[in-house]
From TrEMBL:
Protein name per Swiss-Prot or TrEMBL: Tetratricopeptide repeat protein
One Pfam family it belongs to: TPR_6
Transmembrane stretches, start-end: 39-61, 67-88, 109-131, 137-158, 170-193, 213-237
Species the sequence originates in: Desulfosarcina widdelii
Keywords: Membrane, Transmembrane, Transmembrane helix
Keyword Membrane annotated: yes
Xref: Gene3D superfamilies: Tetratricopeptide repeat domain
Length: 447
């Protein structure tokens, strides 16, 4: 704090003590296409989940024909869109946590929601003119283009707070062009989210008890609405410099701040060590950070996942190929313990690239093999299961590894002959194992 103006924040380089310039949130966050699972989990955080349940219950209890039913529907969806717009604004400003459920968020200032309705009214009005004056073909073309550029209009409404600018073709076309191919990818996901409730209603909800239909359909529509608006907000955040939207470093807040794994206690030894490590990393002293970790922990006694991840990343950055596989085994055990699938797969493949003979514990190999298969890396999964059977021949997980390998050969790699050979060998070698009935049944299903 300091400067010529009261309350001004000065950002200084910790190494040379000179002023630094903020490069934008886009340089420190994952691109939206790498974050898709988190978008689907976002509505299940406490605040939006509570709102979805309450609104869905109200819709189920108070829905019906007549003016009262119409009033209920308008109230439910008015509040839902008000919160969705708050989600969009909050995300775009850099706050990846869900907005609070207070009067300001839910009831005050419906202007942005009304303006968004104005976008749909403008599109509907212009479409009527095009259909009437220019015919069916051009009318359909207009609807298609309007649908493609609808997210750009909503983004403009957030960034400019002007309905006129939001429906100005010069503005929304220019914005889509500045975002580039990322806009088309966003629209692809946006269109899928828009059609998901109808598909669920047709193929799932209609087969459930009729008394639950209104509740479930309302819940699903609100759920996908929140995802879509969070996605659009994140796109604004990612491309805020390209579209001219101001996001300050102080406003950025990751959603992990709301989880139980938020910042540890300040006097926690691992927390204190992490602060020392982070400072050395900021100063560019990666070797010094490695030396501090090794001297303070003895390296083998690292039990904190975050500290272990820091050490692994530092070893990879400095090209310490002799230490990377050794720590990789311990780090992979921690990732498996925490069920961190994505990072476990990345660490395993990274260590394997450095050392083809890389061999983690049997449990880590079994778990990682399954997660590799989930990620579509079938050949790598087979390699993990084969490594388990060769490096840990006496481990109880070996028969299960043979069975999983057989499944992958049959279902993923279209090699049923190899699968049958593995299963036949499994039945002969482990006749009394618990996996035998499953293997026999699987062989029968294969024919």
């Amino acid at each position: 704090m300091g400067g010529y103006h009261q309350g001004e924040k000065l950002h200084m380089c910790p190494q040379c003590n000179r002023p630094v310039t903020w490069l934008g949130v886009g340089n420190i966050i994952d691109p939206f296409w790498k974050r898709l699972p988190r978008f689907f989990l976002y509505p299940f955080t406490t605040r939006p989940l509570l709102l979805m349940v309450v609104l869905s219950v109200l819709a189920a209890l108070l829905s019906g024909s007549g003016i009262f039913g119409l009033f209920t529907a308008v109230a439910v969806w008015g509040i839902a869109f008000k919160y969705a717009y708050a989600v969009l604004q909050s995300t775009a400003s850099g706050n990846l946590t869900a907005p609070k459920l207070d009067g300001r968020t839910l009831y005050e200032n419906f202007g942005p929601v009304i303006k968004q309705v104005g976008i749909y009214v403008a599109i509907f009005f212009l479409a009527g003119i095009v259909f009437a004056k220019l015919g069916m073909a051009l009318g359909i073309g207009f609807i298609v283009l309007a649908t493609i550029f609808l997210p750009a209009m909503i983004i403009l409404l957030v960034t400019t707070e002007s309905l006129i600018q939001a429906i100005n073709p010069m503005m929304f076309v220019s914005l889509a062009v500045r975002i580039g191919w990322g806009y088309l990818l966003m629209y692809f996901f946006y269109s899928i989210l828009g059609g998901a409730p109808a598909l669920l209603g047709r193929h799932v909800i209609q087969y459930l008890p009729p008394a639950m239909h209104v509740f479930l359909f309302t819940f699903v529509k609100i759920y996908y609405t929140f995802i879509a608006y969070h996605l659009m907000g994140y796109v604004i955040l990612q491309y805020h410099q390209d579209i001219g939207y101001q996001v300050d470093f102080e406003d950025f807040k990751d959603e992990r701040a709301e989880t139980d794994a938020a910042s540890p206690a300040l006097d926690d030894p691992d927390s204190l060590l992490l602060r020392r490590i982070n400072q050395l990393i900021k100063e560019g002293d990666h070797e010094g950070a490695i030396n501090v970790i090794e001297s303070e922990t003895g390296e083998e006694s690292i039990t904190d996942s975050l500290l272990s991840q820091r050490y692994f990343t530092l070893l990879a950055m400095t090209g310490a190929k002799d230490k990377l596989p050794t720590h990789g085994r311990r780090h992979l055990d921690l990732l498996v313990r925490d069920e961190n699938k994505t990072e476990a797969v990345d660490v395993y493949l990274q260590c394997l690239a450095v050392d083809p003979n890389f061999s983690p514990s049997a449990r880590a190999l079994f778990k990682t093999g399954a997660w590799l298969d989930e990620a579509g890396k079938s050949k790598e999964a087979i390699g993990a299961f084969n490594k388990l059977t060769k490096k840990h021949p006496g481990d109880p997980l070996v028969p299960k590894s043979y069975f999983r390998a057989a499944q992958i050969f049959n279902e993923r790699l279209t090699n049923p002959q190899r699968a049958k050979k593995i299963l036949t060998g499994l039945l002969k070698k482990y006749p009394g194992h618990d996996i035998v009935p499953f293997a026999q049944r699987y062989l029968q299903q294969m024919g």
